[in-house]
């Protein structure tokens, strides 16, 4: 059941609350609106010709999804958790410079995330892929709440299978690599859906990145 909450402070209007595992739109649907995550997590994915699923992204608070250069959505989108979603018609961008600026800034970050994903997927080490995934989630949190990453808790509401499909690994490999990163003291795993970043620079090095 969806619940609507009025909130127009960012130009996107009413927040619609969707339960977890609820489709927002399907691959091939007409792309007439752009969506913003107000709370929760949304997963975007593409169904391939051989019926396999390729997860293309996890969208968290403040991020946009549903952008398409074509008339139809190339991906589908579904909530991972209960999520508050706002949307605006694509036609509204023609008359609202503020919205255009928001979308432009997001698009630049999306390009950066896509480039980082490409580098992640070309890494031969499964440990580096999982480390890079955690770094990506931590970086998103840091954009919102400050520069200190050590001790930061990162939410992992998606399943291990979802992470595996995103990184091109098996579910068992993802679980093993998370436990290995924990044994190295780089992260803590207080519960299934949380990772605590203990040594951010070490995690970045494990991911094949330069320390910040």
TrEMBL record:
Residue intervals of the Cyclic nucleotide-binding domain: 18-66
Keyword Transcription: yes
Organism domain of life: Bacteria
UniProt-listed Pfam families: cNMP_binding, HTH_Crp_2
Keywords: DNA-binding, Transcription, Transcription regulation
GO molecular function, one term: DNA binding
Domain HTH crp-type per the UniProt entry, residue ranges: 124-201
Name of this chain's protein: Transcriptional regulator
